[in-house]
Amino acid sequence: NIEEQNNMTQSIQSAIDETGERSRKMVDVATDSNENIQENLQVMEELKNQSEQIAATNHEVTESMTRLQNKTKEVEEIAGMILNISNQTRAGEAGRGFAVVAEQIRQLAEQTKKSTEEITTIINELNENARDVMTSVESSVEATESQNEKIAVAAESFERLNENMSQLIGDINEIAG
User: Fold this and answer.
1) Structure pTM?
2) In sequence order, what DSSP letters do the residues of 4-23 get, joined into one string?
3) Could you report the per-residue pLDDT of 107-138, keeping only the tens digit for each?
4) DSSP code per residue over 18-86
5) DSSP character for 1?
6) What separation in angstroms does the CA of 108 have from each of 65, 102, 105, 114?
């Protein structure tokens, strides 16, 4: 009986030693995982900050484009006034007594009209480009907001994982003890 009890004690001791060794390995794995989680949490925080910075930049670009569109409308109004004056000046060529002056005024009016039409074309293209940029920026803002939400969800997940790993390490250490 003593010999059998001695064999059982050695078997139990062997099992305890093996359990202790496995516990140490589990602590090492859990500790390494916990360190990786901490690094990933830091990366997620950096991504969140960069994403917020991109959103702020997009907002500034949107405001700049709105101001550009407003200024373009102002130039368009001025070009309209010039075109109106040009048309009125051309009507003044009916004065036959001032043939030379009238001809020069007519040529000036034609050049002014042509330049004004070119300005109007450029303004229309600028407005179109500004609308395209606004659409792109708005799309970028939406994507950034979506990215921020996903980053927040991932960060929460890492936080829970971090808590779980800390608890696991504590439990393993307690079992090993």
Assistant:
1) 0.53
2) HHHHHHHHHHHHHHHHHHHH
3) 877 888 888 888 888 888 888 888 888 888 88
4) HHHHHHHHHHHHHHHHHHHHHHHHHHHHHHHHHHHHHHHHHHHHHHHHHHHHHHHHHHHHHHHHHHHHH
5) -
6) 34, 10, 5, 10
